[in-house]
Amino acid sequence: MIRVGIVGIGQWGKNLLKEFSKISSISISVTKGNHDNRRWLKTNYPKIKSSKNYSDILQDENIDAVIIATPIKTHFKLAYQALLAGKHVFIEKTISENSFDGKKLLELAKKKHLVIFVGYEFLYHSAFQKIKNISTKEKILQLKCEWSKFGSFNENIFHDLVSHFLTIAITLFGLPKKVNFSEKIGITTKCDITTLDLEFKNRSKVSIYVNRVATSKRRVINIITKKNLYIWEDEELFKFKKIKNQKIKIKHASSLENESIEFLKAIKNSKYNYKNPKIAISALQLIENQV
Predict the structure, then answer these.
(1) How far is CA 71 from the centre of its chain?
(2) Which domains are seen in the chain, by residue range?
(3) How many helices (H) and strands (E) does the chain have?
(4) What pTM did the predictor assign?
(5) Long-range contacts of range 35-42, CB-CB < 8 Å, 24 or more positions apart?
(6) Strand, helix or coil at 42?
(7) DSSP code of residue 162
(8) DSSP classification of residue 124
(9) What are 108-154's pLDDT values in tens digits?
(10) In sequence order, what are the beta bridge partners of 172?
């Protein structure tokens, strides 16, 4: 079984720990020392050692991989140190604060023949797997993406939220030929509401609207093909034809579980294609070119 260490057990780190603990051996968790988090770990996973020192993971020759679930500004340094120490790396999005650092991580991973994997959970959602299958049979003309919520003001909205939709678009259509940010509204931070449009070589279009000062929570993607309209809303996928709608059966496996399995599978595979980090870096480059 692959042996793993995790850095950061905040809200999302806890979720990752829960999933990875099912399919790998987690021996140590590094956290700055939040008493609630350390108490949670001791109560729920008493066999996992808690430490404040990242070097305890880096210097442990028995650990194969590192999960990084810390603020984005720390990703590059932590991932670079892990790769230098010969550890495979799973980073919760984004790969780094900028594409230049992301490329440096990818180059180092290739040089050391290690896996680097970025946790864009929606790419591993069962609904998205179904959408990718649909795209091979019906040309997707347009995606209309909307995400309304309240919060996550401590991170850049483009890195934290918009990048999810960008990676979906890049996975389906490749790199866009044109990106237009038509709206950027700052309320609590420099930007809390944004709208952008993407055009691709195959004439497909993607529109993205993100609002993190909304009073209600909603995440939905309309997928318009030549034949049908599909709607992916939260955990469900629907097909609309004429005036009827039909819920599409999807396997309700956790997308976190799916991406965790994918990461560990990549480690076991001796040939790495690095498609996942390349998509993550491309998303960063699109943001940098426009913001």
Answers:
(1) 13
(2) 3-119+256-263 (3.40.50.720), 122-252 (3.30.360.10)
(3) 10, 14
(4) 0.93
(5) 37/9, 37/10, 40/9, 40/14, 41/9
(6) helix
(7) I
(8) G
(9) 999 999 999 999 999 999 999 999 999 999 999 999 999 999 999 99
(10) none
Structure tokens given for 99: 């594409």
Q: Residue 20 CB: number of other CB atoms within 10 A?
A: 23
For residue 38, what are its two tokens?
Answer: 């350390």
Sign of CA dihedral 224, 147, 275, 99: positive
| AA letter at 6 | I
- CA 131, chain centre distance (Å): 17
The token pair at 259 is 């991406």
Tell me which amino acid residue 188 is: T
Residues 17 and 71: their CA atoms lie apart, in Å, by 16
Tokens 């003001």 correspond to 153
Residue whose C-alpha is closest to residue 284's, from 124, 154, 158, 144: 158
Q: What's the rounded Cα separation, in Å, for the pair 92 and 290? A: 23
Asked whether 66 and 60 are in contact (CB, 8 A), the reply is no
Q: What does the radius of gyration of the chain's CA atoms come to, in whole angstroms?
A: 19
CA–CA dist 135, 79 (Å, integer): 34
**Amino acid, single-letter form, for residue 219:** R
Let me know: does 245 contact 238? Beta carbons within 8 Å: yes
Phi, psi of 174 (to 5 degrees): 85, -165
Q: Write out pLDDT tens, residues 78-116.
A: 999 999 999 999 999 999 999 999 999 999 999 999 999
Q: Do strands 213-225 and 25-30 pair parallel, antiparallel, or not at all (unpaired)?
A: unpaired
